[in-house]
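Re: the multi-chain job from yesterday

Posting the exact lines I submitted so nobody has to dig through the queue logs.
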Amino acid sequence: MSELEKLRELLFAEEQKTLESIKERTESPSTRTRDVAEVLPGAIGVSHRRDPALVKALREPVRESFEYAVNKNPRAFADALFPVIGPAIRKSIAETFKTLVQSLNQTMEYSLSPKGLKWRMEAARAGIPLGEYILRKTLVYRIEQVYLIQRERGLMAGHVQNESAVAQDADAVSAMFTAIQDFVTDSFSPDHSQLLETADIGEFTVWVLHGPYSMMACVIRGVPPRGLRDELAEILERVNLQYGDALQSFEGDAEGMEGVEDLLAECLFLEQRQASQEEKSKGLLSPPLKIILLLLAAVLAWLVVSNYLEAKRLARFSQAVADTPGLVATELVANGGQISMRGLADPLADDLDAVLERTGLGNVEVTAELDPFQSLEPEIVLRRARRVLAPPPGVQLTMQGDTLVATGRAGIEWRRDFAARAPLLAGVNRADASATVASDEEILSLARSALQPPAGTVLEVSQQVLEISGVAPQRWIEDIPLRLGQVEGLAGTETGGLVPAEFEQLVQRVRQLDGRTFYFQSGASLLDPRNTALVSAAARLREMFAMADEIGRGVDVTIVGYADGVGDRNANLDVMQRRAEALKTGFVAQGIPADRLTTAVAGLPANPVADARQRKAVLQIALAPST
Amino acid sequence: MSRISRKVCIIGDFAVGKTSTVARFVNNVFSEKYLTTVGVKIDTKDIPLADGRELRMVIWDIAGSDRFSSAEFAYMRGAQAYLLVADGTRKETLANALALRQAVQERYGELPHVLLVNKFDLEDDWEVAETALDKLRDAGSLVLCTSAKTGKCVERAFDELARAVTGAKPA
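And the result, structure tokens for all chains:
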């Protein structure tokens, strides 16, 4: 060993050992593993705290290892998860069901109710989802307890609670709440200035309102509306106004705090008032019951109305049947839209469809069992008469009482038929066709056959008036009214143009005799000594008088004497008179009654000339005016 | 009958028996887990007073730790009296209790209190010298040796506190 080596050994023996040891450790894998194992947890911690590189680096290997492990031994993982997975699933299912039931309840209650519809409209108007709107409207809450807590000491300065609330040690709760308030503030408010204002615990919400020296904790069941907080704050303000000083120096003594609980109770009343309003608005009946009652009422109303309508329909139909001649209802029953009828019907009565149409009832079905009968109602009797008697056009039939009356223009045949058959009809006691009018032709024909008019007469009928003209024997003429008595339909007879044949003969005889002249010799002796002309004339005069007498007419016969006027006027007048008298005497001698002959003298001629033809007497005959 | 309430705290080191000392004598309203979560647990105790009033003591059982954090300290705010608890079998807890008392005094002023030296039933392990306690008593402190197990002196401690916070004798 050289000096240098010795020196080195002396100087660095320890270091040498250390180096040897280090070398040995670095070269031995087992030693290295131990070393790394020693520092690994610390190193991982340091690295993890410093940056996320380690996490990133480990992510994949860890995932793969985990997968491998799960595949290798799944049971171990199942066992590990078992305690947590069961409750988790149960909780999830319970939550789901709770939500489902709530949602169903709400849907049932609000979807179809009037309130629901109203909300639907209001939500649409407000432009918010219906769900949110329903949530706002259906918040049911109830203030269960109110604690007034002195802030500094956490001592309860007042406490009220609803009857149903579970009684707790209010003092302890107040203190604990204060502790928690402090705990929360200290823990979560960096500058310790923020205060706990709301806490939700299951179905409860705790609202904390803070005053200068106190806080008011309200335990509310359900979800309170936001506006409630303002009302609570207002109550707390009044508490502070009234009890501020007392609260500031509150040490747990009731003195100075008298009456505070009455004030706090307003919070409960506030809730009660709203609850009672809710109760009032809700009413005694639940919505489904209301709907059922409404439906029942509707059904009842429908029954009443339909019964009423049915009765009205039946009454209307019954009236229509009663108004229909030849129809008699013995039983009428309405059944829904149907009417069933039992009764009697004349074959000539209107059928039921026509009756139904008159009622204007529309589609009502009528079933009827009708027995036939003969109705004596005038309308039906008339129908029967029309059917049986078949009146010609222009004839009207009417019933006047039990009399069938025919009017209008009717043929004689039909009238005979009418007269014969009408009284046989049911319901007709008498038949009267006197008011019917026959046709002019028929009347003429009847009149002709009744009168058998002689030649020389003319018969005409106009407006049922018979006009007879021409010449006819007096006796026939006199018989006319008698003969016409059998002619029906005759309105009157005009015989002004009818001349009796006897009168006509008389007139002719008068014409034959009138102006017949008998000549005289000078003086007053007739020229014809045998008087043949006189005799002939006398005979004709006698006949004439007889004829006149027969027909009751007077005939004035005047014998006028003439003279030629030559000579003495008086002598002329005298000879005129003697000539008239002479002729009269001659007639009287022939059997003519003297009183039927008058005599007269003609006037003297203006220029008398001796003329033998003026020695005459002339017959002047005129028919006396008829009386 | 009028009812009054007072805030009373129980403070002391970790595991000195604060909670178990009072547990038998109060209305346990809340679970002990509040101590570990919120750091405080509230109990109440009703004490009828000789003058006819009814005192409800609201007892803040503040979680113990070696040092009061500001949060836990805050629970002391507004306290009208307190129970200071130490473990007689661990000498250092008494020192810590006194330090705590000092801190409370500094922060909230002089408050009525009773010092409970607990676990008096474990006499064999008792570390606190009686002389030290006498010294404290001489200095005006009310010191009681208590046992959560037997309930020794606990009732009295409350009575003392009641008297202190109401000025009236318990009935």
